[in-house]
Amino acid sequence: MSDDLVFLYERSAKIYPRAVDGRFQRLRKAAVFWLLGMYYAFPWFNWDGRQMVLFDLPARKFYVFGWVVWPQDFIFLAAFLVACALSLFFFTALAGRLWCGYACPQTVWTEVFLWIEHHTEGDRNARMRLDKEPMSWRKFRIKASKQALWIGVALWTGFTFVGFFTPIRQLALDFPMQWDLTRWFWTLFYGAATYGNAAYLREQVCKYMCPYARFQSAMLDRDSLIISYDEMRGEPRGARRRQVPDRAQRLATGSSPSAAELGDCIDCKACVLVCPTGIDIRKGLQYECIGCAACIDACDEVMDKVGYPRGLVRYSTENAIQGQPTHILRPRVIVYALVLLTLGASVLLGVMLKKPLIVDVIRDRGALYRFASDGQVENAYQVKLIHKRETAAMFRLRVLTPGLELIAPANIAVEPGEVRNVAVTLRQPEDAAKGAKDVVIEVIDLSDDSVRVQETTRFFGPT
To answer: Model's pTM, two decimal places?
Structure first.
């Protein structure tokens, strides 16, 4: 029996990504500031005297930039979610994991927590040395400072999350004595989720928990722009002195055979050291790659130092890397774009034509008809008025079908955002009320004559 131990499951080694600067990292920082700025700031701004973004679940209304979304408008929310899914397909087919690298909440908050870690513990080598040191007052102070900042950001994130569902100014005034269990739970739950995912799980979420990493290959093809290592230019790898001409110049000037045979990759592993998921992009596209382009900035920096052209690692297509023609505008990209444009135009048109009043006429299910004291045939209804404007209004009902009498309040006052049920009765003489017929009830806004809604229902009489 062998004494060798084989571990089927090994604990993931902690990744210490090195900080890097460059055009793509500056773009990512701008995206982080923009996205987190919207998240943390939007609840504090008002629009028309109301919180600019508020999801009022008890009232079943969403307020988004002055637009009130009612339950009847959730078709627009469904269309928006479909558009988001199609956008993911479109941008992935066009340029890989742009969402993961620049806009995914996991990436955004992980970046913030990495900045805090870098600010408190130092760059990659300093963090590695600190973790290997035995516990001391210095190490405890540094780790405690980092944890305090992490917890502060996580709790503020949880508080802001609750502020999207409860008016955040009142939420802050009620803290902490008037908070109920629901507010405490969601603040702590969302804060703990942010803390755990961004502080510790990090790349594990992208590699093992996110399903997108697994099915992205179905949306990519040889013409998709992805982060690529130019193997034809970079191989074989090898260390060399600085300011050595690139391969083409070395061959043209008759440099030594050993130098001429080397590719432009000096095997510095800078692309590996900056990768937040710890992969080596030189091995080709891998599902762990989140498209953050840190390896591009790191490699360009090294190429500048050794005097080689940039672009050894770059955004490119598989066809372009192999010297074949590339087609960015191809059928799948065009189809995605057309569907997105059509969906967006439909939603915009629907919002523009959205009526401020919804009318629903419901027949009394107790009886098809009844006889009044004077012998006329009556049908009873409930007219539901959903007033979607933010100002009070006065409505009037009338029946457009000849020969029918409407018994209803003369004027109906409805408050802003109110759902009002009005009991009405239609009556007709017995000799004219034979069988079933369609009738039209119209609701008119007395303050805005252009708001007229007609609803068709049925009137029943004896056969």
So the answer is: 0.82
